[in-house]
Amino acid sequence: MTDPSAQLLLFSVTMPTYVLLLAAKITQPQPIDVGFTQVLLALVFLAFVADQQQWDFQQAKKEYQRTARVPRTFKRGSRDDLDRGFLVSGLWKWSRHPNFAAEQSFWVVLYFWSCWTSQTYFNWTGVGALGYLALFQASTWFTELITAKKYREYNEYQKRVGKFLPNLIARQPGDFSDTKATGSKRKPRPRWPGVGSGLFGQGAAPQPTRVLDAVNKKIYPLRCQGNFE
User: What pLDDT band is residue 2 in, cutting at 50, 70 and 90?
Assistant: First the structure.
């Protein structure tokens, strides 16, 4: 059964459409209405692109964890990006949550549209947009708290990239391209737990190999396992 509070929130964020519906009965469409519509469609497209980029990355990471090889279809980064564990390219280079930013902006723009149509600076339908923004602030804070504990480079990512809006004063790129260009000055990342500087080298991703049983003279395939989560 759906949570009543969630239903109330969804109802409240759509309340500006009621104002637009009433205004449409007494006013004629204006060019600005076309502009608002185009902005809303652009935000929907932006959220779609951000979600698709995240989906492609997660699918590539899953394949990489299973085979220890960078998938051929992964065109948006390198092995370092997959080892890092979270996406830092595309729209995610400029915002830590571009999909969230687009979704919140959609409802805020819809509210501003209702204000323009009703010729007021603000109206009662803004309660829904404010509640939606507050929900995203709290949920995103909690999500990042967990993510920062899971991925050790996420704190650095937070310094480089804004939560929702681009960080215009950051001196380092959000995709960590500066570390790639300088040969990665940061400390080696333990990509494969349990593997040191022995057969595969420090921090190097081992390739599938084989082990010879000296007693039975049998060759067994060996795929090194590691904690990729």
Answer: low
218-227 contacts, C-beta under 8 A, 24 or more apart: 223/68, 224/68, 224/192, 224/195, 224/200, 226/191, 226/192, 226/193, 226/194, 226/195, 227/193
Instruction: Write out the DSSP string of the chain.
Output: ---HHHHHHHHHHTTHHHHHHHHHHHS---HHHHHHHHHHHHHHHHHHHHHHHHHHHHHHHHHHHHHSS--TT--S--HHHHHH-S--SGGGGTBS-HHHHHHHHHHHHHHHHHHHHHT-S--TTHHHHHHHHHHHHHHHHHHHHHHHHH-TTHHHHHHHSBSSS--TT-SS-TT-HHHHHTT--SPPP--STT--SSSS-TTPPPPPEEEEETTTTEEEEE-------
Contacts by 141-146, CB closer than 8 A, 24 or more apart: 144/96
Euclidean distance between CA atoms 216 and 178, whole angstroms: 51
- Give tens-digit pLDDT for 117-141: 988 998 999 999 999 999 999 999 9
